[in-house]
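**Tokenised fold:**
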Amino acid sequence: MNVLKQPIIEMKHVSYSYDHRNVIEDINLNIEEGTFLGLVGPNGSGKTTLLKCILGLIKPQTGELNLFGVPLRKFKDWSKIGFVSQKANSFNTGFPASVYEVVASGLTAKLGLFRRMSKADKQKVDEAIEAVGITSLKDRNIGELSGGQQQRTFIARALVSEPKLLILDEPTVGVDQKTVEGFYKLLEKLNREKGITLILVTHDVGTVSDKVTHVACMNKHLHFHGNTEEFESMTDQDLSQFYGHDVQAISHNHHHHGGHE
């Protein structure tokens, strides 16, 4: 029995413009619970603006946006949404905080700054650190970690308030390739095992197309939104038409025959 899932995000005819120039135009997008969406598009295609709308940082000028079935203007339950930016990589390395403290700071929004952490809170911090596989680093200073370890710390910080939706904006910028692979496996695990809905903004959809469940391609408009199989059946030519230039970089040859890359 296929129960119709409630979309976590519903966008109807959403547009947003800066200085009379539409950055996103007439976006219709439903993201269902349990989805792992890869969001791709060239620079300046409006991806960041779209995220800002979902995060409530800006309000669409036209159209409707519902989060968890609630219109954006009435939505209050922001702890349901976690966010990890690419800026996490440029974290001030002189900042004297341990991994544990950084992750715990993800609870202060919920607790209020000066409320003491209960035993249950501490357990949540430990569980979030364990979920991203950095338990052995929890007492280390965040500044001493590699880029990939720092990013895992920031994912743990986002996870600690137990979000239903986790949004990651190009989280692997500046992280080496071997780490990136482990990183995407971690995201896949969070999606499959914890049931967290993920939106991953990425330039490199070829790398993650065996991890994500759906792909959305945007360039001001939403040009394509479908599951990974539908995306993979598209040709480079189809994609080039969307983008207005060649996108051979999106190669679909990595796992068609069930073998390894």
About this structure: Residues 64 and 258 are 41 Å apart (CA to CA). The beta strands are 7-18, 21-32, 36-40, 62-67, 70-71, 81-84, 165-169, 197-201, 214-219, 221-227. Confidence is low (pLDDT under 50) at residues 246-261.
